[in-house]
Design brief:
Length: 245
Amino acid sequence: MLARAEALTILIDPGHGGEEDGAVATTQGENPPRIIKEKDIALSIAKRIHELLRQKNYSVYLTRSFDRTVTLPERAAIAEKTKADLFISVHINSSPESGAVGFETYYLDNHDDVAIKKVEKTENVQASGDNVVVQQILVDLVVEQTVSTSKPLAESIHGVLKQTVGRKYKIPSRGVKPGLFYVLALSKRPGVLLEVGFISTYKERVRMMDPKFQDDYARAVVNGIESYIRKQQAKTRYNVIKKKK
């Protein structure tokens, strides 16, 4: 059951950081060229989401507020410490395919999609060895607990992104998808993983580095979160009334 909006705690998770650059790309037309890193763009967008939620009086935290290494277990520990109700992880996509474009939103669930497995491989980079076995067991358990709330959260955020950012910047939606991301499983609460766009595609890379785009994207994410909260609270009220009858 969701409490009053102001009483909710939301944890924003900028992907990668510190020793982990995430996806990278080299600038074009600059001498010398610069290396553009996923961790930096993700942090900038995450901070904007954090600030907008803070202004709306939510209790909101960041797993990192500067460029530092935060392991998957550490991110999960922060979720536990803050008693987060929702977990939003921000990432930037990359593809070997020339001209890949679009934004997509993931929630924790099982699937058999080969394309999604490529994204999982990138975002689960810290998971290895015996940890994978343990984490896989955890994933299966958490999926059962969170899929009924994480999927609607993903659909709500993605729907607003599609209606606003997608239309304004003419960016195609790549859809809402299930994925086995350990950062979502370890957080053990309703959560989504956002892939903002493709750093490997020049026009998307330039756009994602634009502060105006970052503001628009962050605002859409916040509106999507609030839409989800309103629907969940309405459902809770309906169930309470129905139970009393």
